[in-house]
Amino acid sequence: MVMVYSVGHISGAHFNPAVTISFAIFRRFPVRQVPLYIIAQLMGSILASGTLALVFDVTPEAFFGTVPAGSNGQSLVLEIIISFLLMFVISGVSTDDRAVGDLGGIAVGMTILLNVFVAGPISGASMNPARSIGPALVKHQFEGLWVYIVGPIIGTIAGAFAYNLIRWTDKPLGELTRVGSLIKSSSKNNAS
C-alpha cells in the first residue's frame, strides 16, 4: 500500500507483470512499454531475493518464495481466483473515474491481505509472477513455478474483463443519480 502511494504517480505502481499485461490487453497501458516494465519487475524481484539470500541464512525449509503446499491444481485454481479478485479491485480503483482514487492503495492492500489469509496456506498467495520468479531463480527452487506464472495471468485478465463488463457507463455517479432522481420526480408529476 505504501509503495502504491509513493511511486504510483511515477510508474502507475506497476509491480506485477500479470497486472501490466492485463492493462495492456484492455488498452489501459501502452503495449510497447510492457516488455520494459516486465524486465524491471523481474529485475526488482531478483535483486530483492538476492539481497535476502545474502543477508539471511536461508535454508531450504525457510524458502521465501512460493511453492504449492497442496497440489499444483489446487494452487492454480486459488491463484486464478485471488488474482481475479485483485485485478477486479485494481480495475475499479485505478481505471474508473467514479471511484475514490485516494483510497485505491488501501483497497488494493486490503484485497491482498484478505487473499493471503484465504489462499496463503495452500498456494502461498503470490498473485504476481515476478514475486515467484525472483526467489525461484535465486534459490534454484522451481517446483510448481508454472502455477505462479499461469494462474495470475489468467486471473488478472479475467478480473479486468469482468470489471469492464459491468462498467456500463463512463458517467460519474453523481450524474447518474441526478438523472435517476429527475426521472423519478418527472414520473411522479406525470402520475398526479
From TrEMBL:
Protein name listed in UniProt: Noduline-like intrinsic protein 14
Organism, as annotated: Salix purpurea
One GO term describing the cellular component: membrane
Pfam families referenced in this protein's UniProt entry, alphabetically: MIP (PF00230)
Cytoplasm as UniProt keyword: no
GO molecular function terms attached to this record: channel activity
Cellular compartments annotated: Membrane
Gene that encodes the chain: NIP1;4
Predominant place of localization: membrane
Alphabetized UniProt keyword annotations: Membrane, Transmembrane, Transmembrane helix, Transport
Family: Belongs to the MIP/aquaporin (TC 1.A.8) family.
Membrane topology label: Multi-pass membrane protein
Keyword Cell division: no
